Amino acid sequence: MASESTLRFGAQTDEVTSLLRIVNMVRTGEASTRPEIGRLTGLGRGVVTQRVDQAIAMGFLEDGEFGPSSGGRAPRTLRFRSNAGRIVVAALGALHFHIGIAHLDGDVVDQKHQQWDIARGPADTLDEVLAAVDELLDRTGDAPVWAVAVGVPGPVDFTTGRPVAPPIMPGWNGFDVRRRFEQHLNAPTWVDNDVNLLALGERARRGAHDTNLIFCKIGSGIGAGLLSQGHLHRGTNGAAGDIGHVRVRDSNAACRCGKVGCLEAVAGGWAMVRDAEQRVADGASGRLALEEQPLSPEIIAKHAEHGDALSIALVQESAHVVGEAIATLVNVFNPGVIVIGGAVASAGEIYLAEVRQRVYELSLPLATRDLTIAQSHNDPAEPVRGGAELAREQLFEVTFPRWFADGRPTIDAVRGAS
């Protein structure tokens, strides 16, 4: 058997490699019995038994029920101990946050949604978020927290977990979000752009881990999460997919980022509210003009669905410009699926039809030959499910060799500290 130091510091001996593979085979459902493991790995029966017994002793696996017999003795199934730990997800939006607790298999067991203005700054925001996390942890058992995933509505340096000049998050630039969560929950934390969590949530919902997919979020701001063969493409510094700040031709609209002519300043939710208020002030009529609540992207989308002419015009204008930007992504990235989500896109087919038309008009025929453009299911649990996917991927596919000898992840082991 490999020494504890060999296991702990990740030297990839044959034993370590096969043990990690067996745990992940059971975890992902690739194999569920010892004979299946032997057939898929080529390992002998005695070696499989030894590795499985070790995984059980370390707390990763457990015996389940007896499986179907193929003529001889029925094999006992194996299960991944998904309830051995919990994953905390905090998905922060511009005007709300969504908190969730998931088991290690990604199953969301509890969640909470709360209105909140992220412009109130990191100190107040994270105090409120962590209080909500504590509330959910208190009512979801006593299993330890194994990982935390945080989504924020702005560019993130994924390596450090720090937002970088986020236009709609004043006071957050360079703030150590990861450290704040790790200090409070004593668990390794990953921070990413919120739309990347949505892209991973869509991957989990579809069960397609080899897909080329773009998730475009058209909410208060605009962003895209890029999946290449099922893996997130973040770029060198985490800025990939930030299409909200590409330049729109012939536009001089001032953007919150300080530049002019950005896609978000022309077609984002806050820009639609700005334009709606201006047109109502200029005398436009209809249901939107009679709205008693402060205007929001959700309210505009709702009135568009109910036939309000001004709302429909605003939605279609946004979709027209967004469709041009997506067409460029289609030509460059050649995805198989584009999913449109967010508050503005909740207008449904009114928005989607305009996007489709522009994409097919402006993209190469080969790039659109097998392309599907669909609306997000708008499931409130999607960012929580996506955050759990992010945490599970980082735990079991990226950092597993660094910490598995401890039986559960620690911050130092995940970060590679000695």
Automatic annotation (TrEMBL):
The lineage of its organism: Bacteria, Bacillati, Actinomycetota, Actinomycetes, Micrococcales. Pfam families: ROK. InterPro entries: ATPase_NBD, ROK, ROK_cs, WH-like_DNA-bd_sf, WH_DNA-bd_sf. Gene3D superfamilies: 3.30.420.40, Winged helix-like DNA-binding domain superfamily/Winged helix DNA-binding domain (1.10.10.10). It comes from Microbacterium hominis. Belongs to the ROK (NagC/XylR) family. This is ROK family protein.
